[in-house]
Amino acid sequence: MAGEVENNLIELNLNQNKDDIVDPWTVTSSNETGIDYDKLIKRFGSSKIDKELLDRFEKVTGKKVHHFLRRGIVFSHRDMHTILTNYEAGKPFYLYTGRGPSSTSIHLGHLIPFQFCKWLQDVFDVPLVIQLTDDEKTLWRDLSLEEAHKLAYENAKDIIAVGFDVEKTFIFSDVDYIGQRPEFYRNMIRIQKCVTFNQVKGIFGFDDSTVIGKIAFPAVQATPALSTSFPDIFKDKKIPCLIPCAIDQDPYFRMTRDVCPRIGFQKPALLHSIFFPALQGAQTKMSASEANSTIYCSDTPKQVKNKINKYAFSGGQATVEDHRKLGGNCDVDITYQYLKFFLEDDDKLEQIRKDYSSGNLLTGELKKILIDILTPLVQEHQKRRAEVTDEILQKFMTPRKLHVDY
Ligand code: TYM
Predict the structure, then answer these.
(1) Domain boundaries in the chain?
(2) DSSP string for 237-285
(3) If one looks up domain 3-278 in CATH, what number appears?
């Protein structure tokens, strides 16, 4: 067995840091500032995104890096230098990301990888495939196959509303696509042949009573990292893949990276983001199944306002007098943390940080700034989503040649 799985990933469940748990199903920390991402990088064996990589990004693309990269929101990578080297040499790559459709609407946290993918797609002008794992959600959740499949199509509308280029993006439901293209299934089998039950037990914490659908599922999430799974787009060409996602999905791709060279494919590269925290605090991530900790992209302005005012954990002091004297703590303040994700202007953000830390800005005022940013963001998202007709949806979700030259 190649080293990567052996060294890094079997340890995931066996060797969780006592404080932080990060896997595809659970993200918790006992620290109020949230997950210790530096420790996580070490544990997972990925690389920190440093200044050198950011400078290279800017040099190669000629564009200022996205504020997610500038602010350490996209903080870790695997093989990103290789992607940039290839890109400089005029060699193509494609993007792959996904969503497990478990709710009718996506939430603000889901926007992070998708907004970032859109930026990457625009900057590099590359094709993007988006996997909707309706199969995963029916296996893990109390959802029928039909319900999960329906949610996949609902979520696809939200994803399209992020602004992807229809000529360069293919969105697919596993339940539909795997039966349509034997090339995908063949690659799945090639991957399944390389991974033992013992390995997935170690990686994903499966045990003897786990249903076999779950045991086989990691191969399904690995398969889109093999370009030949999409013959309509790539024919039979082996094109390198770059996967942007939050770091909870990394176990799937450590497994994928272990298998790829053994079946004649290049390992996929990765860009990892941190988690958009729950309203109640950075100890957990925003999650679709926790309505009160989550701002959905379908929430009304009133809901957005109420949720922030009522639930957003404050790093401010108990009284106005104390706050003026002692100032607020931006490291734990959820309102400030959300601004880091969604307020693009670096100078404004820095001014807010100074004013809040010094006590000039009160918690209520800080919350109002956030509400004034998130309300139009959510409303515009809803408007774009409403414009996604059945025809547009069908186009994105039909296997087809994309406008790319290979
Ligand atoms: P899912 O539906 O849990 O999440 C979809 C994407 O959003 C990221 N994410 C978050 N990012 C920031 N803050 C949060 N609070 C937050 N919650 C979720 C996830 O990391 C993911 O990138 N099994 C996957 C679906 C999938 C996939 C993929 C994801 C299939 N293939 C390839 C990424 C890349 C899932 O259930 O994602």
Answers:
(1) 3-278, 290-386
(2) ----EEEEEEGGGHHHHHHHHHHGGGGT-PPPEEEEE-PPEETTEEEEE
(3) 3.40.50.620
Q: Cα 76 from chain centroid?
A: 12
Q: What is the pLDDT of residues 361-380, one digit of tens each?
A: 999 999 999 999 999 999 99
Residues with CB under 6 A from ligand 1: 24, 96-100, 109-110, 112-113, 131, 133, 136, 221, 243, 245-246, 248-249, 273, 275-276, 285-286
Q: pLDDT digits over 214-224, tens only?
A: 999 999 999 99
Ligand 1 center from residue 69 Cα (angstroms): 18
**Mean pLDDT (whole number) for 55-74:** 97
Top-level CATH class of 290-386? mainly alpha
Q: What's the predicted TM-score (pTM) here?
A: 0.95
Distance CA 74, CA 66 (A): 9
Rounded to the nearest whole angstrom, what is the distance from the C-alpha of residue 109 to the centroid of ligand 1?
Answer: 9
Q: What angle do CA 298, 368, 387 make, to 5 degrees?
A: 25
Nearest CA to ligand 1 atom 25: 99
Report whether pLDDT(17) > 90.
no
CB atoms within 10 A of CB 122: 14
Ligand 1 center–CA 67 separation, angstroms: 20
Give residue-wise pLDDT tens across range 231-281.
999 999 999 999 999 999 999 999 999 999 999 999 999 999 999 999 999
Distance 242 CA to ligand 1 centre (A): 15
